[in-house]
Amino acid sequence: MTSIVELIKQFDFTTDLAPQLEGWDERNRSNQLIAIDSSDITAVMGAGSEHIQISFDSLESLQDQKGQLAGVKALLVMLCGGPETSLLQVEQLHRAINDAVGVDSDANLILGAEIDSESQGTISGVIIGAR
Fold first, then answer.
1. Which domain range does residue 104 map to?
2. CA quadruple 57, 121, 72, 12: dihedral positive or negative?
3. Which 3 state secondary structure label does DSSP give 109?
4. Count of structural domains within the chain
5. Which of 54, 84, 90, 117 has its CB surrounded by the most CB atoms within 10 Å?
6. pLDDT of 95-105, one tens digit each?
7. For residue 1, how many C-alpha atoms fall within 13 Å in the half-sphere facing its CB?
8. Distance between CA atoms of residues 131 and 127, nearest Å
9. What angle do CA 2, 33, 11 make, to 5 degrees?
10. CA 26 to mean position of chain CA atoms
11. CB proximity list for 14: less than 8 A, separation 6 or greater
12. pTM as predicted
């Protein structure tokens, strides 16, 4: 099975994603809530020629970077939270992403999620987008 990092590198993505995605493949296979596969990555990376990447470890850090999401055509959002992660936390992240992209946007948003027992009370993630 091809790793997520290897698939993304096929699109000449210049930002080094390895630190943010380190271990995602292994964790995603065993603790996945919503799986991401090669067709998801191809759909996002093929949606535009300009690619962006945001990594965050809290809603506040996402808020600081959400200006980068304006005008995207497709987003791949990979979330990681602990077993105690609430739907309210996920909804707050979803709302922040939607606000940044634009409510009337036709952007394709693909979500992947996993549970990590070491993530205590936080949700972290990586967003990859294409314009």
1. 4-130
2. positive
3. strand
4. 1
5. 54
6. 888 888 875 67
7. 9
8. 13
9. 30
10. 16
11. 51
12. 0.76
Token pair belonging to 60? 């506040």
45 token code pair = 């990376």
Write the single-letter amino acid at 28.
N
CATH number at residue 92: 3.30.1330.20
* Separation CA 110–CA 44 (nearest Å): 8
Q: Report residue 115 as tokens.
A: 């549970």
Tokens standing for residue 52: 């962006």
| Distance from C-alpha of 122 to C-alpha of 28, rounded to nearest angstrom | 17
pLDDT in tens, 10-52: 655 545 554 555 555 555 555 666 677 778 878 888 888 888 8
Q: Which pair of structure tokens corresponds to residue 41? A: 């990555």
